[in-house]
Specification:
CATH class of the largest domain: Alpha Beta
Largest sheet: 6 strands, mixed
Structural class: alpha/beta
CATH superfamily of the largest domain: von Willebrand factor, type A domain
Number of domains: 3
Strand content: 15-25%
Number of strands: 13
Distance between the termini: 79 Å
Mean pLDDT: 82
Order of helices and strands: HHHEEHEHEEHEEHEHEEEHEHEH
Length: 379
Amino acid sequence: MAEFEYSRYDGTQRFVPLDAEVLFDQISDILVEHGEYLLRQIERDVPDLQEVMQRLIRAGYLERDAERGLAVSPRGLRRLQDRAFVELFQIQARGNVGRHDSSFRGDGSIRYEETRPFVYGDPTSHLSLQETLRNAVARQGGGWPIQVAEKDLVVHEADYHTTCSTVLLLDMSGSMARYGKFSQAKRVALGLHSLIRTRFPGDRLRTVGFYSFASPLTERELLRVGPKAVTIFDHRVFLRIPIDRPPPFVPEHFTNIQLGLQYARRLLARDAARNKQIICVTDGEPTAHVEGRELVLAYPPTDRTAQRTLEEVRRCRDAGIRLSTIALIEDAFYLDLKNFVDLMARESRGVAAYCYAGDLGRCVLESFVQGRRERRRIS
């Protein structure tokens, strides 16, 4: 068997330092998983890396924040988003900026292979001269000059492009810490922000995390957050907590899909976009809901929590919001979760999908691009 020996650095070997962008890319995966806490740990515990951190600061990928210390800069955050976009969605070619293809017809990209009779209000720029003249000649039986009547007019169909307002709901309950589910969901959210910034700049995306409660997440906060720590290990839990006067300790690791949907619905109600959708990523049945001014935490999941959640699903449906629910099924005992996600899809007339964490990017991308579509003629 061959023997190998590591050579020592004696000062004669050529050393080429890594580019700052490559350095930042090498730590980006750990940053997504552990957040900016990693940077503060490195700064405090690994003095040999101080020069590396200074290089990243000079390159603009990191910055010093008065409150948080060493943190990712806006340029670094954009780099993280772009890498997540490329890695997850595998989209190299950029399409038309700011446009969702849809099944609407109207002003937009002309579809030369599809034509229809002219309807009052159609733009004359969409006229098919060839078919219009053919109809006029056939109607008058030949001869010159050709007299074109309104009934001879034919227009090309056109795709109607529209903006879309999306709320991405991310489960932050305690179980999302297993199997790297939350870090993968975070990558998807970062990539979706890059997708919208580069391909659909007219769109709007908000991220909301739901746990025992629900709260909005800015792009910077999204990088820092993680699943809520499990603080109760009893095999049965039923708690009622007054929202107006909560006790000092409130368990946060439960799954409140109802409150997440309610928060998303109210955000979308303020938007003027024609297409509105919610994409909900979860790994468990709801174990929390709100009744009046009380937060109810229940484990195992109860029918009451399920019904309160489905009531909110129907409110989203009635508000014209498309709901896509994506269930992460890493374990073998997720039959009840599948059944509940099917119920959500049935009540919302939306989409249900089940996948492993590694396939989450594909499922979210498909749900986002499809958006909310309906077939109707616009004149």
